Every structure is written in structure tokens, then in C-alpha cells.
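User: Fold this, then the next.

Assistant: Folding the first:
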Amino acid sequence: MTALLKDAPVDDAAKIAAQNDAFRGSIMFFNDAEDTPKGQFVMTRGVMALGSDSRLAATRAVAAFQAFTPDNDPYGFHEFGAVEVLGTTVWFKIDAYDVNYEYGSPDPGDPEQTRRVLTLLLPSEY
């Protein structure tokens, strides 16, 4: 679990998961609704170095990812996952920041107080 979501009330898990799913889907326009949570999508240097075909495949796989289980998502926030892309494992993680991207969100379940950052990274970069 990311440090920025660890203090969120358990009751908010379903709401935060739905917002994370909507945000993740928006990176490939799988979800372009007006109420999609705001945020940024970034990749590490390692993912960038994989080349354009792998970056596109990873982005598509992450946007469509639904394979959350109690083993890989124990808190139910849908904030972390792994995809296999052209023989390479790529991780994604979502962190919840305040609206200025300076601190953790005061209320990760409130889209008005939260900006998400979805990062694609290689396991070796964690």
C-alpha cells in the first residue's frame, strides 16, 4: 500500500478503488467521463527505455487492468498492480496527493481534495 493512502478509512476503500479504476482507465480514454478524478500519468526512465511499442502496450494493459485479488490488493484500493508486456513485467502504482501535488491528500476519497499520480515503473526501479 502506498504511504499516501495508508491512513484512509477502510469504509472509503470501495470509493477510492472506483476512483482509482476510473483514473487508470482514463489514461487510454477507456473512461473519459467528466467526473474522472484529476491527476497525472508518468513513466520512469526504465519504462521509457523499453521503446514505444512496449510503452503503448503497457499503458493499454494498465488502463484495462482488472485482476485485483485479496493477495495483490489487500486493502481494496486498486492502487498497485503488475502487467506482463512483451516479456517484461511492468508495475503501476497510484498515489493520492493534495491539489498542489505537495503532500498526501487530506481525504483520498474526495476528488476535490485529491490529485492522483499513476506511475509506470519496472520492479528494479522500486
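Now the next one, as you asked:
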Amino acid sequence: MDVKEVLRFADDLVFAKTGEHLEDLQEAILGGVWEGQKYSQIAEASHCSEGHVRNVASKLWKRLSNVLGEEITPSNLRSTLERRQLFIISSNSGNDFFIGNVNVCKDSQSSEVPKTRSPSTPTSDTSQPQTRLDLADAPHISSLSDSPDGDSFASRTSELATLEKWIVQEKCNLAAISGLSGIGKTALSLHLIQKIQHNFEYVIWRSLRHSPPLETTLKNLLEFLLNKPEIELPSSIPDRLSLLMEFLRKNRSLIILDDVQTILSSGQLAGNYRPECENYSILFRQIGETTHNSCLILNSWEPPREITALKGEKSPVRSLQVKGIGAAAAAEIFQQKSLLNPETWENLINTYRGNPLWLKIVATTIQEIFRGRVAEFLKYDMLFLGEELAATLHPQINRLSELEKKLICRLSREANSVSIEQLLQDANLPPSELFNGLQSLGRRSLVEIEEQENETLFSVCPVVRQYVLSNPVC
């Protein structure tokens, strides 16, 4: 956003919440801070004292904090407004957009925000259904470590098309997007919203990163969807669930819950819940099994157990396991990092399995140590993890059950793929336990499966193998 867009955007938000517009000095402060000016420079340009500018600025940051529902300071102003602006001012012009319960109307035909417009008055464009959008919890795509840099998302065309078909054409009720940390689940969901949001009356994004109890999540959803304060909502979980399901039947809504793995347990097979979050299974089952007009998307390292039990090609419940990005998107990352020797890039992509985050980490290492020369890095014939990449794997490996740890250690000791027969002989496990462990590791995206001469073989990718052999897992 340039400074004019920032001022229009901020004024629109403040007017929608308070019915008042930014004052001239407030606009000068906002624009000056956006362009990196100090308060003394703003005061000189505005012909007032620096102390007066500081006082007005303090009130301005409090005002914007109240409007946006999070603390705004000069240091986080740019990142916060850019993150909010991505979806609030979007290509879907003519719709009503919401931050929390604040209605923000955008008239794309006007270069300025009308000073007399009512905050709840819809625009005259009726070519698309009115969409109420709350993405206060959603990150900005460009801020994601698991998203390729730049505007290219071509390598995810197939995944986007699949999800769009499931949700828009086949009207599935529940879809899980799973995969390792850094693989691009959140970025994929954000791009998906841009493509399909006009098919819904309501779109809401909530993060479960802090493992909120179900009653809190239901409260947050209902407050936005019904536009009511908590005091007007029923207090019991069954009543809140009933109210939510009634709303989803009557209003086509898209709900995205991110970081779902935080409500799932460690030390058990994939998909089981933490004891205090067990009742989320009721929500997921109701949405997956009952008839309604809406869709719930779950982003997670592993799918909850309801997904694996209910999913199917003709079922209203679907599951997508996200794999690595293609060569074009990976090359974009390498170009952003100014890597050299493009003829060697395929080696890096294969070794790090196209995981955008892993590729960014290793590309940064190559740039800092070898000045971008990939060929020189590869001369050492080693797979470099480093503390940063190891830190991304630690919480995922640490979640494994003892059975899974035993199996992943066994697989990591082999450079080649291993058959089930070999695992049965070496692991000294009954077939049922072995199958459970392999299935759980697969749902966590921690094993690779291939077929060879009518035999199923299992392995772990080089990055996971290196981590397991270098850390006290076994």
C-alpha cells in the first residue's frame, strides 16, 4: 500500500467503528510514520510542537488498537495494516467485510472514501452475493515462512483446483488440509479464500494455536456470524453447537480453523485429542455428518481421527495431504535468495522434498556461507540441517508415540526403502501394531510409501532421517 491507500484504509476502519473520521494531524502522523519519519519531522511539517504530536499519536495508536482488536504501535503499523488489507480490500468489491464485528464497506469505483457514508450501507454492486469476511486471525501471505516468495503460486494449481471442486461444486462439509510444518497449508488456504470467497455469505478464519477450549471457539464463531455479544449467546456447549449448526444450515458459510494440531495429543497415535479438547470431536462430527450448506476447513500437521473415519470420494468429508512445491516455485525461492548454479538446484529440491520452509533455510545457509554457490555447497556431499531446520522438526517428532519412534528409528537406519516383511522381522512387533504405527506415521507425513514389484515399501525422507539419527529419538 502507498501512503494514500493507507490513509483511506485507516479512515475507513475508524469511521466504520466510531462514525468519526481521522483528524488532519492524525492523518499526518499516520502517513509520516508509514514513510519512516520521526515525530520531530512530522511536527516540523505540521507546524506544531513535537510534544503535541506525541500526545496525538498516543491517542491515535489507542484508537487504531481498539478498532483492530490488537495493539498497534509505530513498529508494527506497517505489518498489521498490510495483513488486514489483503482481504478486507480485495478483488471482491461491492461486498461487506468485517474485522471482528466491524462492518467495513469498500467501493472500488471511488478513489476516495466518501465522508458521509454510513458504515453499514452496502455498495450498489449487486453482481456478487454479499460476503461478510472476518480474517482477523489470518496471517498475510507474504509473511508466511511456508509460502513461496512473490506472487507465483503456480505449483499449487492442482491442489487449489481440487479444493475448489470439493467445496464449491461438490459442496463438501468438512475438508482437512494436512502436512508437515512449512509445507504450505496456511498459504494454500489463504489463496483458496481469494478464489472462492464470493460463493459464501460468511467467511471466518480462526487460529487454534493457543489450544482454546471448544466453548471459546464457539463463542468467537457465533459472535461474528450472529453479530451478537457473548452475553446474548447461550452458555452451554450443546446449545452453542445447536445454534451454530442452525446458522450453517441457513447461511452458506466458510470457516477455516488453522493450527488444529495444537488440540491433538502428543505421545499417542495421530489424530487423538488432548483430554481437555476431546469435545472438538463433537463439533467436527456434527459438521461432517449432518446436512447443511457450509464448509469447515481444518489446517493441521495431522488430520483429526474423525477425518480418517468419515472421508471418502463421495463423502461430504475430504482430506488433502500437501506435498512439496514444484521446480518453478522452488526456483523462485532460490532466485529470491540469489543462489547460483541453477543446473544443481534440482538436487536441492529433491533432497529437501520441495518443502518451502526447508528450501528457504538451506538457501539462506548457502547464501551466507558460500555466497550463493550451490555447487560448492554440494561438493561436501552432506545434508545440512542446522539449528533452524531442526527446530521445525523437533515438535513434530516429539509428538510421536513410543511405537512410532521405534519404527521411525528403524526406517532411518536404512538408506533404502524397507518392506513390511523386513519390519516385522526386525521390529519384533505383531502385524496389527506395525500397521497402526505405519499408518499413523503416514498421516503425519513422516514416511514415504512406494510400490515395487507388487510389494509396498516404506522409507523416511533424507531430512527426517538426518534429524532422527542426530537427535536422541531412538
